[in-house]
Amino acid sequence: MLFASVATASLQLAGEPGRLKKTALLAELLRGLEPTEIEPAVAWLSGELLQGQIGVGWAALRTIPAAGDEPVLAIGDVQQALDSIATISGAGSRAARAAELTRLFGAATAHEQNFLRRLIGGELRQGALGALMLDAVAAAAEVPITAVRRAAMLHGDTPAIARLALLGGVTEVGAVGLEVGRAVAPMLAKPGGSIVDAIARLGLAGWEQKLDGARIQVHRDGENVLIFTRSLDEITDRLPEIVELARRLGATRFVLDGEVLLLRPDGRPHPFQVTAARFASGNSAEAEAAATLTPFFFDLLHLDGVDLIDEPAATRIEALEGLVPAQYRPRRVVTADAEVASAFFEDVVASGHEGVVAKSLSASYEAGRRGDSWLKIKPVHTLDLVVLAVEWGSGRRTGLLSNIHLGARAADGGFVMLGKTFKGMTDAMLQWQTERFRELAATPLEQRVVALRPEQVVEVAIDGVQRSTRYPGGVALRFARVLRYRDDKPVSEIDTVESVQAMLG
Predict the structure, then answer these.
(1) What are the beta bridge partners of residue 299?
(2) I want to staple 259 with a disulfide (CB 3.0 to 4.6 A). Which of 152, 213, 378, 385 is the partner?
(3) For strand 188-191 and strand 415-421, is the pairing parallel, antiparallel, or unpaired?
(4) Adjacent-strand bridge partners of 46
(5) Can you give the pTM of this predicted structure?
(6) Dihedral through CA 473, CA 476, CA 480, CA 483, nearest 10?
(7) Residue 142 pLDDT exceeds 50
(8) What is the pLDDT at residue 282?
(9) Cβ-count burial of 331 within 10 angstroms (0-12 exposed, 13-18 middle, 19+ buried)?
């Protein structure tokens, strides 16, 4: 199949708002692929490269040769070129990669060049990610979507599952199971509202500390230990202390799910970005003992030849408690009493943690899903801020002013930016703010980022704040989302930078 077909499908997906039509469009393309074309095409339409990082940044993509007039590149040609670029290393590698890029882009049409530039630059946004792609694979292969989703969650590789489904059907897809040493897409928690709401939905449940750390999955098979991140990247070499702990546990074959935190001497957690910096950099012989990450394991998916992923949570937790010492498990209570759960919540938050997660005792481990059986409950912080600028949207928000820049009031009467958000906006809100911000525009509307007169107050909910070198106030918002616009409130009454900085503790 010509590479132009993939680029065209991407363009059509970006302009199609309907999920069913997107799925049908993708399924039609998938049916026409040759076996060797399935994995690269699925990866590209999911905004990814099979090679991962290929050593090409945006600077290398600024200068490309003139485009061809007619499409001549096949999918295999592009995949071969990307493979070649990814393997270039050593002296002269920059020039060699540039030469390969020039050959690839020189054979592409303008339409194909645009797709390639966004794909390689990590800026492809056409709405074919995650669940939508799995829906299309199921439709094209005529395999039940439940089977495709489960296989993808256990395998962790959507392009590989697409190949299995399209070539082997339900038999091959159904044969995919949990494999020690191969990362499993982690189960995620849904926002749970209040404690009373969670009890009404789950009844008797296990309540655990919600840890603001870095998610890990630890696989042990004999002396071989592998550690994966939430995004299924293998990072074993970064965490030698976790490898050592895994080898001390009283089993030789298991899969553990948990998080790692960097703790202060008093046992309270450091802010997330401190943990994240240590997690990203890895350990070294020179690292201080204080930089040792502490794991907290909250689930067990496999133990000595027995898969536990489909067992109820109560069974998995019982096995976990028999394997992992209490000091490496989150604090936990089992209750259906709102007062007991509330007291536990308050104690957890007072100890510096994010909140709690209520977990059904009867639910299986829903790999890769944000299921109803895990409900996270956190304190809600709200701020009144001013909108300093706004960005034009993309995808289904094309033509609408979407991502807003948020500012707090400074002591000198000016404003300091604290972050951006496009979350929490309803369709009606997007329409309203597009008209409102046109009126407040202080720079031309043709620009991607439109500066505004600082007059519109917005109330946002946040999960907290963190230190930041990006913004002049030294602080940034975490997970900000719009609650409502405050036409009743003057800008002189919004929250100050000092009050937000105080939230750092």
Answers:
(1) 257
(2) 213
(3) unpaired
(4) none
(5) 0.70
(6) -20
(7) yes
(8) 64
(9) middle
End-to-end CA distance of the chain: 58
pLDDT of residue 305: 93
Q: Which residues contact 80 (CB under 8 A, 6 or more apart)?
A: none
Q: pLDDT value at position 505?
A: 63
Nearest to 437 by CA among 460, 458, 418: 458
- Structural contact between residues 303 and 251, judged by C-beta atoms closer than 8 angstroms: yes
> Catalytic pick from 22, 210, 376, 420?
210
* 361-364-366-372 Cα dihedral, nearest 10 degrees: -40
Instruction: Please report the pLDDT score of residue 129 as a whole number.
Output: 65
Complete DSSP assignment for 148-167: HHHHHHHH--HHHHHHHHHH
For 377, residues 6+ apart whose C-beta sits below 8 A from its C-beta are: 191, 192, 193, 194, 195, 198, 210, 345, 355, 356, 357, 358
424: exposed, middle or buried (C-beta count within 10 Å: 0-12, 13-18, 19+)?
middle
126, pLDDT greater than 60: no
pLDDT at 379: 83
Amino acid identity of 11? Answer: L
Eight-class DSSP state of 424 = T
* 210 included as an active-site residue: yes
Instruction: Return the number of other C-beta atoms located less than 10 Å from residue 336's C-beta.
Output: 12
Cβ atoms 149, 198 nearer than 8 A: no
- Checking if the pLDDT of 421 tops 50, the result is yes
Residue 409's CB is within 10 A of a number of other CB atoms, namely: 23
Q: What is the pLDDT of residue 497?
A: 92
Which amino acid is located at 223 in the chain?
Answer: E
Other residues' Cβ atoms within 10 Å of the Cβ of residue 247: 13
Round to whole Å and give the CA distance between 30 and 38.
Answer: 7
What is the rounded CA–CA span in Å between residue 175 and residue 183?
A: 17
| Strand stretches in 399-438, DSSP E | 401-409, 415-421
Separation CA 177–CA 296 (nearest Å) = 25
Tell me phi and psi for residue 278, to 5 degrees.
-65, -40
Cα separation, 125 vs 412, in Å, equals 40
d(CA 88, CA 100): 10
pLDDT in tens, 35-66: 999 999 999 998 888 888 787 877 778 788 88
DSSP labels, 91-144: TTHHHHHHHHHHHHHHTSBHHHHHHHHHHHTT---SS--THHHHHHHHHHHT--
Give the separation between CA 488 and CA 491, rounded to whole angstroms: 10
Pair of tokens at residue 354: 């994010």
